[in-house]
Specification:
InterPro entries: Phage_capsid, Phage_capsid-like_C. It is found in: Virion. 42% of the residues lie in helices and 19% in strands. Residues 123-129 have low confidence and may be disordered. Strands 1, 2, 5, 6, 13, 14 and 15 form a 7-stranded mixed β-sheet that branches. It has 417 residues and is an alpha+beta fold. α1 runs antiparallel to α2. The two termini are 47 Å apart.
């Protein structure tokens, strides 16, 4: 069954469940109705698993489409350059591919000179030369790598993400206006002074390494139709950087690394004794209302938790026995919990003693900064050649921070015992 058919099947089940819930209120929501809804939810879970598997396969099959998107990005970059710069960019792209496949010792003199000269877009922005032994990736190559980061984790799904050419510390204004009010002013009386008090926070750029990815000689030597070594290297590097950055954007302590959202979020509701591995509907309602209504009305508001937490939340019901989790009809109307959308983040703490396991609020208040310069190194020294391998290493720079003077996101903390 294809993905569309599975989604249609899921939508039909979601409609059936919602109709049962919404048309049977109060005493009308009997045990028989509750059992029917539970059975439908189990069927939805099975369909979701099938959709996830089909989407994973489609992602694998769609790697060529991602490469096409990268070429389109290259074309957009080239359209901004003059003819001389376009020629330089093409030379650099071709030389970079030769660098990946053959290394510097296997390149022609012209290709080596093209790499040393750098990409045209780099020169146009007056960015410094890359580190010795490594080269800045072409615009389309780097754009695909950064876009691929969004496929892992969860933070990039909800945060505000922006890119800069360089990595100098970036001051960001902060202000909390949730308690500010106007006034009534009598005739001929001056208005009171109440200046907005701005603060600033710095968003920097921490240097991340992919660690070395090794590729056997055979893959480089025998590549033919259907084998794209560039794409393989790019995906492997992106996966590693995405995992570590998502972990830091979630849990980082801000010391030598980004400050994670869990770290930055104050506790809005602490679980009562006995809830070290659980949460009650009342806890979640208190957490919701611990966030100022001004933030709860913003488009970025929602929940964030681990998938195992979602499993437990799906079993929570209100006083009439009606589930608090509702399946969405379509992708545009996502599943909700207590009427708010949610994001699964596998780096969120699972429910355990004193864990900040659930976040709620305006998740888009978290800012992620990407530096557009990505440098690739290729290793073909004896440490690798004696194993019949070539090594690749990427360096990229990122930072993340909750940039607000208020508390747009708060956490539920499980009890200590």
């Amino acid at each position: 069954m294809n993905i569309k058919a599975l989604r249609d099947q899921r939508a039909a089940k979601a409609t059936e469940a919602r109709n049962l819930i919404e048309s049977n209120t109060g005493a009308g929501y009997t045990k028989e109705i509750s059992d029917k809804v539970d059975a439908i939810y189990e069927e939805i879970d099975r369909i979701d698993a099938s959709i996830a598997a089909a989407e994973r396969q489609a992602q694998i099959d769609g790697d060529a489409a991602q490469d096409d998107a990268g070429r389109e990005l290259d074309d957009r970059v080239r359209s901004q350059l003059n003819p001389e710069q376009r020629e330089q960019q093409d030379r650099y792209n071709n030389a970079f591919r030769a660098f990946i496949l053959r290394g510097e010792r296997g390149m022609t003199q012209a290709e080596t000179q093209a790499l040393i000269a750098g990409p045209a877009i780099q020169n146009a922005q007056s960015i410094g030369s890359p580190a010795s032994g490594g080269y800045l990736v072409p615009a389309g190559w780097g754009g695909q790598l950064l876009e691929a980061l969004a496929m892992f984790g969860g933070m990039r799904d909800v945060a505000t993400v922006f890119s800069t050419a360089g990595g100098n510390p970036l001051p960001w204004p902060t202000v909390d206006e949730t308690a500010a009010e106007g006034e009534i002013v009598p005739e001929n009386v001056a208005a009171a002074d109440s200046d907005v008090t701005f603060g600033t926070t710095q968003i920097g750029a921490y240097k991340y390494s992919s660690k070395v990815v090794t590729i056997p000689f055979e893959l480089l030597q025998d590549q033919g139709p259907g084998i794209d070594v560039e794409a393989f290297v790019r995906r492997a590097l992106a996966m590693r950087i995405a995992r570590i950055t998502n972990r830091h954007f979630t849990l980082g302590d801000g010391v030598g690394k980004p400050q994670g959202l869990v770290t930055a979020a104050p506790v809005g509701r602490a679980g009562l004794t006995g809830s070290a591995t659980s949460v009650s509907p009342d806890d979640l309602i208190f957490l919701e209302h611990s966030v100022d209504p001004a933030y709860r009305s913003l488009p970025g508001v929602g929940w964030m938790f681990h998938d195992s937490t979602l499993r437990d939340l799906k079993r929570l019901k209100d006083n009439d026995g009606r589930p608090l989790w509702l399946p969405g009809y379509t992708a545009k109307e996502p599943d909700t919990f207590l009427r708010y959308k949610y994001t699964i983040n596998q780096h969120m703490p699972v429910m355990a003693a004193s864990a900040k396991s659930i976040l709620f609020g305006d998740l888009s208040s978290y800012m992620i900064r990407d530096i557009m310069q990505v440098t690739l190194f290729r290793f073909d020294d004896s440490a690798y050649t004696k194993k019949g391998q070539i090594g690749f290493l990427a360096w990229s720079r990122h930072d993340g921070k909750l940039v607000t003077a208020g508390a747009p996101v708060k956490a539920y903390q499980n009890s200590a015992s």
